[in-house]
Amino acid sequence: MIRFVLWRTGAAAVLLVVLSALVFVLQQISPGDPARAYVGGNASPAAVAAAHHRLGLDRPWPQRYVRYLWHALHGDLGISLRTHRPVTTDLGQFLPATAELVLFSFVLALLLALLFALSGALRWPGTGLYRGVLLLAGTAPAFLLGLGGIVLFYGHLHWLPEAGRGVDTSSPTGFVLLDSLLHGDTGAFTDGLRHLLLPGLALAVAPAISIGRILRAGLERTFGADYVRTARSKGIREVQVLWRHVVRNSLDATLSMAGLQLGFMFAGVVIVENVFTWPGIGYYLAQSIPQSDFPAIAGVTLLLGGVYIVVNAVVDVLQAVADPRLTV
Amino acid sequence: MSAHDLPTPGTARAPGPEPGAASRSGSATAPAAGTAGPVASVRGLSVSLQRQGVRSPVLRGVDLDIAPGEIVGLVGESGSGKSVLAMTMLGLLPRSARPVITGSVHAAGTDMLHGTPAQLRAVRRSRLGVIFQDPMTSLNPTMRIGRQITEVTGDSGEAVTLLGAVRVPEPARRMRAFPHELSGGLRQRVMAAIALTGRPRLIVADEPTTALDVTVQAQLLALLADLRREFGCSVLFITHDLAVAAQITDRIAVLYQGRVAEIGPSAQLLHHPTHPYTAGLLGSRLSLSTPRTGALPTLPADGVPVAERLRGCAYHTRCPLVLDRCASQQPPATPVEGTGVLRACWRDSTAVRDIHRAVVPAEGLAAHAGPLGAVHPSPGGSGKPAADLAVEVRALGCRFHSRSGFEPRHTVDALQGVDLDVRAGEALSIVGESGSGKSTLLRVIAGLTRPTAGTVVLRGTAQMVFQDAGSSLTPWLTVGALLRERLRAAKVPPAEAARRTEEVLAAMGLPASVLKVRPGELSGGQRQRVALARAVVVPPTVLLCDEPTSALDASLAASVLNLIREMRRELAMTVVFVTHDLAVARLMGDRIAVMAQGRLVEQGDAHDIVTAPADPRTRALLDAVPRIDVPAARPATGPADRPEAAR
């Protein structure tokens, strides 16, 4: 087991290095001169040359890559060409909002998935129609769900706010829900929750349906397994049969799917944040792209890619915990 | 149709065992029938189940008593309702089958039909134990076996003791093992340990040895007999093999189409069957004394619709002794004087005895020697020209690695230095326990597994028939499509192909309507026939069979074996037949090769191997073949036990 964890961690590290190399290459082959972008369009050739030297662009590329990797390892992802602040500082400012949205949305997705799985496993008239509606909702893109949600719940019903994170976004940790809870500030908490609900749902529906379908298939398969019959023959209660014997054995594919979907959610958040002007990484990225702010774009890519890799490594380990046969 | 329209009279009560009867043996373990009531009692039980929207009667008025400490065998073909009876007794019928139940079932003092779920759980928890058929799938793969045993009692000390009692080596260490780390035999022992937790009064064993090879089967049977002695529990032992039942049971109930055809003391029933079905089952059993020449005895197939069959005696459509009234009137269960046997048959019991004598050869190694086919030259002698050989295996080795993370954890030599020749037209049986490498050898010959050392030369074309026909046939293709696929690959023109498929189905005894059917809709025996049809529709030079009949009932198995022998004769094929059963190996091969631990330990003429084995491992395999005349698990048998063998 320990060896499996070490092996999986090593594999994740290798993937991260590969990812950083890809990001670096993308940066190199992109058109436009970062030095010129850094000093501005009207700068003198001498100033551009100085910026060239300052940004290390006059050195050969292998050296630049090693430098880039070395700095990245020390938390230095370069200076944003747009904000003229270290990219790490920018990311630190925008990340908590994104993390809060994605985590909230992921928990929502898991709950919805469980609901879909259990309701889908039941047999009642109209199950087919219900599944069809779910499938349709699952294929709708997140921005469409987001816009539809805004039109309905803000435009017509006035139940939920349209955009943003709420009044007070300057909380110490950057996590509005967490801070307001810690300070016992129910007003800020409700406000934060109201702001989270629409973007969270828009982001959660598609993953919830994917995860729910896999979970339902897993549960149905496991319910017919011989060892479930063995468990029943022992005379233990049905709840114990369900929890000890059915659920754990239904998790393998569901865990993979949940991990994949969590990764996708970090990618999908870019669009949802822009629909809801959510001050997170995706919003930051969307502002950096038109300005060719390569260090910022690379930083965001590296961060999201890194999260994706780590999440999948964790899922693999969780699967091994759930099913001991995998590490053999 | 109601499942309850043909109840047996309530007076037809199965007698308890008679400890004093001359036909019983091992009286040290005999239950005291008079001192306590039965552990389980089933009265007039009828069960109908719904499958794919169609309701059909599965049990039709069953009476059965199990006395304390008694081992009762429940024998019948697949579909006879024996598993449904067991599940009903445990209160475990799946709700999805919408069971409709009438009659009464009491087990360990609890009403299993009308008890509350809590009562049923309580009795299952503390009074009943179950051993299921397939140890590979019946244990939770993600739970340590210790936890699976202690799940109910929470007593790990008891669990270690029980693991010791079921002869699991190093029980304390095994507690932390996962099921996939144990062999099939060990897993079935773990199942037995689970069944024994809480000292149950009744253990239901549903075909506990069917998935095991003969050697492990013999061990498990001995274990069950020991456990009965040590723990004093009763056992309901379900099997489709009368010889397996003969090893350990006190009484046997023969179930046919949901009714008890005959029930009585084991020795009595096995040597003096009074129901034509019992006689037929005994006659179609393949043993070491079944004549090697001629067709193997089988029960006639049943092609009559269910509704018609169930009007009178369910067996009347297959019965050699059928009377007019059998088709319209259901025979009641009546006792046979002085034997303790209850039988449901209109014929006189002496009439049945006569057909039994005619069909069943004397047990013991018969002198039916001689080669099977006529195509090949006589066996023996080396230095044959190589062209004569269909399969040539030289110094074959096959090593498997199981990997984990960085480095290989361990290696298994599935085959080591195997040399084997199969002459063109010859039939060779390869025998061995599971894990001996016999299936790997066959797969290497077929080219499905790459050897790590040595060479294999196969002259001509090869086709393979697998053990599990259910999973070796593509589920979404019709039988016709499966057969045409092979013919298209051989570039047979469509008109010719249609004729060939019809021919091959006729040869397999399958109706042409099967062509439009998918494998899932066929029975196990039919599926294996289709698999065989697919293998020979384009006749191969070499037919490779991997335990093609080990999942089938005795009679069905015999008919499939007959087909393989016929096909071999007609198409002049070479046959390599892998089995764990020496009785089958003897019938299917001119020669037998015995494998153990990846090596070929002995090979020679089939008759010689069976009558005069040279290697101890061959002798062990031979001893493990269950025989009706030698009740291995029981002490000395009285003279009344085997008049049949003396004939």
TrEMBL record, chain A:
The protein's matches in Pfam families, at most eight in alphabetical order, are given as: BPD_transp_1, BPD_transp_1_N
Q: Where is the ABC transmembrane type-1 domain?
A: 95-315
Which is one Gene Ontology cellular component term of this protein?
A: plasma membrane
Q: Which GO terms describe its biological process?
A: transmembrane transport
Q: Which ranges does the record mark as transmembrane?
A: 101-122, 134-155, 196-215, 253-276, 296-315
Q: What kind of membrane protein is this, topologically?
A: Multi-pass membrane protein
Provide the alphabetized UniProt keywords. Cell membrane, Membrane, Transmembrane, Transmembrane helix, Transport
Classification via InterPro entries: BPD_transp_1_N, MetI-like, MetI-like_sf
Where's it mainly located?
membrane
Q: Where in the cell is it found?
A: Cell membrane
Q: Would you indicate the residue range of the signal peptide?
A: none
**PANTHER family recorded:** DIPEPTIDE TRANSPORT SYSTEM PERMEASE PROTEIN DPPB-RELATED (PTHR43163)
Family the entry assigns: Belongs to the binding-protein-dependent transport system permease family.
What protein name applies here? Answer: Peptide/nickel transport system permease protein
Organism, per UniProt? Actinacidiphila guanduensis
TrEMBL record, chain B:
Protein's membrane topology: Peripheral membrane protein
Biased composition, class Low complexity, residue ranges: 20-37
Keyword flag Protein biosynthesis: no
CDD domains recorded: ABC_NikE_OppD_transporters
Q: Where in the cell is it found?
A: Cell membrane
Any single GO molecular-function term of the entry would be:
ATP hydrolysis activity
Q: Say which family it is in.
A: Belongs to the ABC transporter superfamily.
NCBIfam families linked to this entry: oligo_HPY
Descriptive protein name: Peptide/nickel transport system ATP-binding protein
Per the UniProt entry, what species is this protein from, by scientific name? Actinacidiphila guanduensis
